[in-house]
Structure formats: C-alpha cells, structure tokens
C-alpha cells in the first residue's frame, strides 16, 4: 500500500478488509466454494492468468501501480515483499475479493483463461467457483468435518456421490488418514494445521482451476507449516497455486515462479524462482533478498 499512509490509516484499512472477508466468508464459499523496471523473463509456459497494467486503490490510496505479469498453469507462483507492498491486494484482485471492500477499485485488465475478469459480463459468483481461496488464519465452519467439505458441493447442487467427493477432497488435502474415523467431529476441534488442511479440502472439493493462498502457514507451527508446504507442491500437479508469503525461504522451497513486490505497490521483478534468489536483475530485489532492507 502507499508508503504515505499513516499507521492509523493502514490499521483502519486492514480492519475494513478483514471485516469484509469475515462477513462475506460464507457467501464466498457459496459462490466459489510505476518505475518501468519490472523484469519478466524466464521460460515460456502456458498461462492461465495475465495481469496487464493493474492499478488498485482503496479510496484515494493507491495499493498497486502498473502491475503486469503472467501466471503459468499448474505451477506454484509465490508473491513476496515487505508488509504493505500490495501482494495480498493483487491476490484478491484475481478473484475479485476486493469487490467486498466498498472503497476498493481496480483499473487495467486481469485475464483469466483469456477473459478480463473485470469485464461487465463476468459474474463474480461464477468466477469464484473457478478460483478458490484459502485465508491466512484457518476458518472452518462450526460444522462437522464432513459438512465443512460438503458445504460448497451442496450449495452448487453437486450431491451425487457425496461421500466419495468428500473423501477425495480430504485425501487430496492430506487429511483423510487423520480424520476418516471422526468425520462427525467438529472442524473447530482440529489442530491449527489440520484446520488449515480442512479449509484447503473445502476449497478443492468444488474442483476449482486455481487456488489462491494468502499466508496459509503464517499462523502454524514448523511441523504444520512443513505439511502445508508439501501439500502445496502436490496440489500443483492438478491446480494452479498462487501463494502470498512473507517467508522468503518458503517461497524458495515450494514455488516455480516468484514475484517481488516492493514499497508503493510496484512489481519490481517476476521470474523463475531460482533466478530471483540466485541472480536477480534488479539491484532493489537483490537488496531485499539479502536483507539490506525490508
């Protein structure tokens, strides 16, 4: 977000975003269940998402400035950068979660399978069915493990073979063996790591094409974090995964591509992860990676 924001303004904005996410979370499950130095090189791959000169605002505050990048299919793309740099804002632009914030607006084009998601003809409800989201803190519904996973399926009328669908989603989320004998247990009774994997199972049960993850392991212990990282790598075999993380080591471990956002909402460099961490084009990125600022 803008480096000119006061701490009071930043806190108020964060509160508005969190309130929108909390109040519309169940609705989301129902519907989903300017520097010119940006570098975007690397191997050419099939793209599923393409951002073209995206600017994002919260009221008069500009959170993203001219962001352009292409996200490859069935790969893990990580977004890193210091707090307030716009990476989470960009993530929310992809499936129009920012629509839930009254003061938010987005300019530019963001293509998903070749269509601008901000076109007037695009239904955000239908869009979120194809682009699922996992939030920073685990947020299972106060329902049984089974009903958490089945919820989106029921809303979408996908009730055939429900038991098999629920089991497969839990297997894909690497949770089935731990909960198969307690599916009637409340999802709220699980550990933090298990709750987050339950939320991932809930997201993939409705068979999206893309999974967005906003700091999915930041609230977890090292063991649970390792489980989530292993899971993300497995999910990329079937889904396109886009993850926001403050943990540069995590990005280096699990991602194929890395986007580096810096203060002021700039995407400074986007490239193969190995290139970003070993030989970045931008001196600013090198300074961030090596800890000279951030």
UniProtKB/TrEMBL annotation:
Domain annotation ABC transporter: ranges: 49-289
Annotated region described as Disordered, given as residue ranges: 1-29
Single GO MF descriptor: ATP binding
Protein name: Phosphate ABC transporter ATP-binding protein PstB
Keywords, comma-separated and alphabetical: ATP-binding, Cell membrane, Membrane, Nucleotide-binding, Transport
SMART domains in alphabetical order: AAA
InterPro entries: AAA+_ATPase (IPR003593), ABC_transporter-like_ATP-bd (IPR003439), ABC_transporter-like_CS (IPR017871), P-loop_NTPase (IPR027417), PstB-like (IPR005670)
Biased composition (Basic and acidic residues): 7-29
Keyword Hydrolase: no
Entries under PANTHER family matching the protein: ABC TRANSPORTER I FAMILY MEMBER 17 (PTHR43423:SF1)
């Amino acid at each position: 977000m803008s480096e000119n924001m006061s701490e009071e303004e930043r806190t108020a904005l964060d509160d508005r975003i969190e309130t929108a996410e909390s109040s519309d979370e169940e609705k989301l499950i129902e519907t989903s269940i300017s520097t010119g130095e940006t570098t975007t090189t690397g191997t050419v791959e099939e793209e599923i998402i393409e951002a073209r000169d995206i600017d994002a605002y919260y009221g008069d505050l500009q959170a993203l400035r001219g962001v352009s990048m292409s996200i490859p299919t069935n790969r893990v793309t990580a977004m890193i950068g210091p707090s307030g740099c716009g990476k989470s804002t960009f993530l929310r632009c992809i499936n129009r979660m920012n629509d839930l914030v009254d003061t938010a607006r987005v300019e530019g084009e963001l293509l998903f399978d070749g269509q601008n998601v901000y076109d007037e003809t695009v239904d955000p409800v239908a869009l979120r069915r194809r682009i699922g989201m996992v939030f920073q803190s685990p947020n299972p519904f106060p329902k049984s493990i089974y009903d958490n996973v089945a919820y989106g399926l029921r809303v979408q009328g996908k009730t055939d073979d429900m038991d098999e669908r629920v089991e497969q989603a839990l297997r894909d989320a690497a949770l089935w063996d731990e909960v198969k004998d307690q599916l009637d247990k409340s999802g709220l009774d699980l550990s933090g790591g298990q709750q987050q994997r339950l939320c991932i199972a809930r997201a993939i049960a409705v068979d999206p094409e893309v999974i967005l993850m906003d700091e999915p392991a930041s609230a977890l212990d090292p063991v649970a974090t390792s489980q989530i990282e292993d899971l993300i790598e497995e999910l990329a075999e079937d889904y396109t995964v886009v993850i926001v993380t403050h943990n540069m080591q995590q990005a280096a471990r699990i991602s194929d591509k890395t986007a580096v956002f810096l203060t002021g909402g700039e995407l400074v460099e986007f490239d193969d992860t190995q290139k970003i961490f070993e030989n970045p084009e931008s001196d600013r990125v090198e300074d961030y990676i090596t800890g000279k600022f951030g």
